[in-house]
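DM from R.C. (forwarded with permission)

"hey, sorry to bug you on a friday — could you get me a structure for this? deadline for the figure draft is monday and I only need the backbone to look sensible"
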Amino acid sequence: MDYPALIAFFDEYNAHFRDFLKFEYGKLDMLHKGEIEKLSKSLAAEQAFIMKSGSLEKRRIGLTGDNVTFADIVEGAPDEYRSALDERYRALSEMVLKIKEINDTASAIVAERLKKIRIRNGGLDTYNGHGDVKKENAINSTMSTNA
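My reply, with the result:
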C-alpha cells in the first residue's frame, strides 16, 4: 500500500468533511433562526457535499479495497505511518459523529416545529367508521363528538 498517497488522500477527505461540518453548522443556525427560504436554497450545496462524499468514498475504496476500514488501515500500517494515519482517522471520526449529531438535532427541531404548527392550526386526524383517515379542524371534531 502506498502510505504517503493514502495520507495525502485522507488529508483531502478530512478537508472535505471539515467543510461539510461547517456547512452543517450553518444549516443548523438557519434552522434555529427560522430562515426557511435560506435553508431551502442551501439544499443544492448540501447535495454537492453529499455527491462529493460519495466520490471520495469510491476513491477510498480504490486505494484501500472494498472491505477495508480506516481502522484496519491504521492497525496494519507500518510504524512510521501509523500515528499520522491514526490522527487523521480520529479527526474524521469526530467530524462524522458531529455531523450526525447536528443532523439528529435538526431533525428534532423540525419535528417539534411541525408538531407546533399542527397544534396551532388545529389539525386533527380522525377516523371514520370505515377506517379511513379524515382531516378535521380540532374545534369541529370536538363539536361533532359532543353533539
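R.C.: lifesaver. DSSP finds six helices and two strands in the chain.
me: no worries. The first strand starts at residue 123 and ends at 127.
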